Amino acid sequence: MTRQLMIMLSAGGSAALLAGAYLFQAMGYPPCAMCLWQRWPHVAAILIGLLALRFPGRLLPALGALAAGTTGAIGAFHTGVERGWWEGPSTCTGGSVLNGLSGSELLAIEGPRVVMCDQVSWEFLSLSMATWNAIFSFDLMAGWVAAFVLSGVSIKAGSSRNA
């Protein structure tokens, strides 16, 4: 197991999760606001991975771990909102006030579809997409941490160095 391999697996995992999110969107499952929030740290992890493959040291793997942990935390929070464990943002959970909208505006079928963050649109093994994102993202974070640790290991002497 090498630093480069762990970076490729971790950044590649973020790319796969991001591709999966867009595939589900293409299949007719539009994302809610919190789903979109979970995508940005994956984008960051992919870019960090590309840089980390080129530049040595521990900083980039640490940032990759932070990005993966961030999307995992958002996914875990989103899971709690979906399951009613806590409240989510009022802008995407139905808590917004509808004052000022006419009946025809409320019943219109044209325009963008509003997807509520507290509603599960798809699940597998009783786990939502947000939950799966959290699980896989925390796994990716572990890969980034391994890359961080491997960044400080000298292959020749087998000792640690500050990189």
Please bin the fraction of helical residues: 55-70%
**Helix/strand class:** mainly alpha
Mean pLDDT: 83
Give, in order, the helices and strands.
Answer: HHHHEEH
Low-confidence stretches: none
How big a fraction of the residues is strand?
under 5%
- Count of alpha and pi helical runs: 5
Give structural notes.
By secondary structure, the chain is mainly α. The chain has five helices and two strands; from the N terminus they run H-H-H-H-E-E-H. The protein has helices spanning 3-26, 33-54, 59-82, 103-107, 129-151, and strands at 123-124, 127-128. The protein has a two-stranded antiparallel ribbon with strand order 1-2. A hairpin with a 2-residue loop joins strand 1 (123-124) and strand 2 (127-128). The longest helix is centred in the first third of the chain and has 24 residues, at 3-26. It is elongated and about 50 Å long.
Which features characterize this protein?
two-stranded antiparallel ribbon, 163 residues, mainly alpha
Give the helix/strand layout.
Elements: H1 3-26, H2 33-54, H3 59-82, H4 103-107, E1 123-124, E2 127-128, H5 129-151
Antiparallel strand pairs: 1-2
Helix pairs in contact: 1-2, 1-5, 2-3, 3-5
Summed up:
The chain has helices at 3-26, 33-54, 59-82, 103-107, 129-151; strands spanning 123-124, 127-128.
